[in-house]
From TrEMBL:
Annotated Pfam families: DeoRC (PF00455), HTH_DeoR (PF08220)
Single annotated GO MF: DNA-binding transcription factor activity
InterPro entries: Carb_Metab_HTH_regulators (IPR050313), DeoR-like_C (IPR014036), DeoR_HTH (IPR001034), NagB/RpiA_transferase-like (IPR037171), Tscrpt_reg_HTH_DeoR_CS (IPR018356), WH-like_DNA-bd_sf (IPR036388), WH_DNA-bd_sf (IPR036390)
Alphabetical UniProt keywords: DNA-binding, Transcription, Transcription regulation
Protein name in the entry: Transcriptional regulator, DeoR family
Classification via Gene3D superfamilies: Winged helix-like DNA-binding domain superfamily/Winged helix DNA-binding domain
HTH deoR-type domain sequence ranges: 20-75
Signal sequence residues: none
Coiled-coil blocks: none
Annotated organism of origin: Rhodospirillum rubrum (strain ATCC 11170 / ATH 1.1.1 / DSM 467 / LMG 4362 / NCIMB 8255 / S1)
Region Disordered, residue ranges: 1-23
Superkingdom assignment: Bacteria
Keyword DNA-binding (UniProt): yes
SMART domains xrefs: DeoRC (SM01134), HTH_DEOR (SM00420)
Source organism phylogeny: Bacteria, Pseudomonadati, Pseudomonadota, Alphaproteobacteria, Rhodospirillales
Length: 285
């Protein structure tokens, strides 16, 4: 079927009865507004099936109009601006980047941990920094798929539970169906989630496998706390962890830019700024 003459593709009701070209224009408008959208969200907005949206996105990708991701799509402007991370940088490289900022975020996040709380902690460098701070606490029960974090906590006065499953090297995270099923058997007071990007459309991660574990933690947690240094504002990656309204608290080091700040307010996310770095003592005037 010629794309230019395509009419009423699919049998969807509502807006789905518009011609395919008009529907794809509506998809483009949504992506230009938010930068990213999931297949499910686009189907809901346009009142069509997810299969129809996937077909539209395939056509649009061939035309160079969108960038497909796992479960959704990005506006091409996001990639042109360098805000889409296709590859996951090496762990040690990420750990060294903004290490002082991550430590301050971790210190602020550690103060939020409930006394004698049941804590979920995932993979990543921010989560490892938080584990090092929580090692100074006591009487917590910490469940994690982060092997490095478990090592940082093992000699503390907390109970540490390392989830089982497949080890993803060199991230040293535990992933897979076994891990996800274990998480679904528990309930957590708080889950501290690391991420690679945060924007109005939600929070993102490089790894599909780690994202599945994060999503399972979110489903089973009373309070979700995101750890995000400000260099990740406006960035996207392969997999969306969740939309903003699934987060309760965002701990960061700087005020979010206006579009993200507005989205956080609408999603009723509490933003906590870490204490600023202490500068050198200055002589009195």
């Amino acid at each position: 079927m010629d794309k230019g003459s395509e009419e009423l593709q699919g049998q969807d009701g509502g807006q789905g009865r518009r011609p395919g070209a008009a529907r794809r224009a509506a998809v483009q408008e949504v992506l230009q507004e938010s930068g990213y959208a999931t297949v499910a969200d686009l189907a809901r907005r346009l009142e069509v099936s997810e299969m129809t949206i996937r077909r539209d996105l395939s056509v649009m990708e061939e035309d160079g109009a969108v960038v497909r991701t796992h479960g959704g799509a990005l506006s091409v402007s996001v990639e042109r601006e360098g805000a889409f991370d296709r590859e996951e940088p090496a762990f040690e490289q990420r750990r060294r980047q903004r290490a002082d900022v991550k430590q301050r975020i971790a210190q602020a996040a550690a103060r939020l941990a409930y006394p004698r709380g049941i804590i979920g902690l995932d993979s990543g460098t921010s989560s490892l920094a938080l584990a090092e701070e929580l090692a100074q606490e006591s009487d917590l029960r910490v469940f994690t798929n982060n092997i490095r974090a478990s090592t940082a906590l093992v000699e503390s006065r907390n109970l540490v539970y390392l989830l089982g499953g497949q080890v993803r090297h060199p991230e040293m995270s535990v992933i897979g169906p076994m891990t996800v099923n274990q998480i679904r058997g528990y309930y957590f007071d708080q889950f501290f989630v690391g991420l690679s990007g945060c924007g109005p459309a939600g929070i993102f991660d490089y790894s599909l496998e780690d994202t599945e574990v994060k999503q399972a933690f979110i489903e089973r947690s009373g309070t979700v706390i995101a750890l995000c240094d400000s260099s990740k504002f406006g960035r996207h990656a392969l997999a969306q962890i969740c939309p903003l309204d699934r987060i309760d608290i965002l701990v960061t080091d700087a005020p979010p830019p206006p579009p993200l700040a507005q989205a956080l307010v609408l999603a009723e996310v509490r933003v906590i700024l870490a204490d600023p770095a202490e500068g050198p003592d200055l002589p009195p005037n």
